[in-house]
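During the first year of the project, the team set up a workflow for recording each protein of interest as an amino acid sequence followed immediately by a discrete structure-token representation. This format lets reviewers and collaborators read both layers of information side by side without switching files. As required by the reporting guidelines, we include two representative entries from the current panel. The first entry is reproduced here exactly as it appears in our internal archive.
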Amino acid sequence: MKNNLLRSASYLMWMFLLVMSACKKSGNKVEDPSAKPGNDKPAQHAPKFPHGTATGPQTEKQIGPEGGTIAFPDGRMSMTIPAGALSGQTTFKIAVVSSTLPGTSGPVFRLSPENITFQKPVELTFNYTEEDFAGSAEDFLYLGYQDAEGYWHKIQKTELNKQNNTLKVKTTHFSDWAMLREFLLEVDKDLVSAGEKANIKVTWLDVDNEDNLFDLLLPVTEVLDANVVNWKLHGVGNISNKKSLEAIYTAPETVDKENEVTVEVTLKGVINKNDPREPGEDGIVILLAPIKIMPGEYFNWEISGEKFAGAGYAASVSNGQIFITGMHQNGSVSIGIKSMEAGTYSFGQDEEGKGGLLVVYGNKGYSSSYEKCDSGEDVFSDGYVNVESIGQVGGFIEGGFSATLYHYEKCEVTAKKARGNFRIRRAGM
């Protein structure tokens, strides 16, 4: 009898370990996963991403045991070191680097020194604008960091303050930090003309649940069709209205004046009903994305959120270069690209395949590059100019730009975020 009991107990223990091992390997809870996006797909492990490269100015400040604050010049990000966190004087730096993770919003900041040890946590504060959650919502903004190995981590407990438009975390280490959008309504064209179409897709910045590593980020993945409740259109035109993670917006055949519509999608089974900043299965997510409809020619741009509509503009292609200019009574934009073909161009020296951008704003000139006083080193914007198409003479040159621009005076840098879109008839030369 005793041997039979031992054999039965051993068998039950073996079965228990086998089941536990299987659950651990699958990484999933024993529950119906149908309401969770991505759970019916093969498990993914969080990948490493290359670290970004320096693309803009940096700021530095010495802080000692008494504590202090260092802020980036444009006010987008700051860090506060409390009294008692340091044992001696330390030079802190904040620099802008390129983003290598899809789903980031705004600049990626590199904080240093990286190997410093704090005796108390320091506080990081990011200031966000409406542009940072365009196609998403404030509740889906988080802070994240990239570790030394290249993995990105999402800080689930990011403190969101909607009144002050800030995101805050406390940390004891430095690395590359950025704002992340958990859900995003991606629009391939946020500006269209008569009869044009825009493709829209819902994406989700997932985490790796294979080994319960719920802060390790995966690349942007697609929400399941089953999570889509419906699509809606607020404004003129029409939108495909099937329960799919992708939709197509079509502008009216006739456009007499500038207009804006809003595309809306409702998702289910992806967040917690009582706390939209936590994952769950009973909540609803509503995402909105604006699309602007423009007649004929236009050149619109924004500088630090202030909007301008060009009163005059010109575009031409000659001598191996593309020239685009927009004028307004309170400023202007000039773009030069050393190419004669459509494409996306980064900023650089006067060399083949590079672009340059100059904006007059507030009676000051802001450029896509500047030369440092102390070293003579050239610093180039992290942005781009995208030329979507180049028509024949009399046809249209279309595209847009997004860049951090710099006003450099007496060795002091002032940075402004700028973006714009253009559709201008090509002049003959």
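The second entry, processed by the same pipeline in the following quarter, appears below.
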Amino acid sequence: MQTLNVDLGDRSYPIHIGAGLLDHADLLLPHLPQKRVAVVTNTTVAPLYLERLTATLQAGGVAVTPIVLPDGEAYKNWETLNLIFDALLTQRAERKTTLIALGGGVVGDMTGFAAASYQRGVPFIQIPTTLLSQVDSSVGGKTGINHPLGKNMIGAFYQPKVVLADTATLKTLPPRELSAGLAEVIKYGLIRDADFLAWLEANMAKLRALDPAAIAHAIYRSCEIKAQVVGQDEREGGIRAILNLGHTFGHAIETGMGYGNWLHGEAVAAGMVMAAQTSQRMGWLSEAEVERTRALIRAAGLPDVAPDLGVDAWLEYMGHDKKVEGGKMRFVLLKKLGEAVITGDVPADVLSGVLTEPR
């Protein structure tokens, strides 16, 4: 097991990474203010891991209430969120009842938002079971739900007490979901670590084959980079926005194509290519560097070409991005591979050129 910490003062917490962590009650019990939890999961993950986690907790004397939600990005909404509240109120969950998110990013985001809102805040723990959630969404305290007009536009910053990334759960992950997680791993190399980017190019086949050492390194380095950035800017007032490379374009793809039709990682992958193309048009990246980015994304089994939404639709959806400030769109671009920059000064002709590139 490897452990690193997200340094946020009295809201700091550990991230434990390793195989078989679902069986370790000792990693969870110190973070429970009372021996009562509600485990929120979905119809896909529940048959795989709910019974095992429940047995681990019950062996430690913890009472467990299971809450099983429908699976999919299409259910990341108010109606599904209310299913969590319905169960908590029916079971008379208290302010010291801990919510545990067992699943991918959708489960983690909704459980965290429920925890931030129920009785104005109860403790919660992240147990991510997908690569994407292990390297990204479980870390940093972003929680929320989608709205028909925009992804993740309703939510709260609310930090977990601990993150338990059991790498053994990735063995049951479909190949498409594994690739989706690799998009966020690639992102960390592009924005912050050129050496890690080169390592990913050399080891992508091992990652897709779930080589234990390669996967453990990719998860650790990704979480390490995110923890460093979040520690500097918890609520995304500045530098934390670099973690959104590809997301302005990617969220537009998800919204425009209908939630769930493109996986988040797939949309971010295509969005990162568009960000690289924008960076090239700004004079920062060479054509060879854009192609290098595309090649790595293709090697991960991800799309490097975005759907054609039409310029008006692109601009409409991108206008709902959380980075919009004073009515002006801001973009995360690349000064070079391994160095991201946040800018609101993308000329209209540059943006139009990217949005109308042949696909």
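For the second entry, the following points were noted during internal review. Residues 180 and 266 are 5 Å apart (CA to CA). The mean pLDDT is 97. Both points are flagged for discussion at the upcoming steering committee meeting.
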